[in-house]
Amino acid sequence: PVVNLPFNFCFYGNTYTQCVIGSNGILSFNTALAGTSSGYSFNTNIPISGNTVLRENSIFGVFTDLNPRLGGEIGWELITLNTGCRALVVAWNDVPMFQCTTVLYSGMMVLYENTNVIEVYIKEKNVCASWNSGNAIVGIQNSTGTVATVATNRNGLSTDWTTTNEAWRFVPSGGST
Question: Is the Cβ–Cβ distance between 85 and 57 less than 8 Å?
Answer without folding.
Answer: no
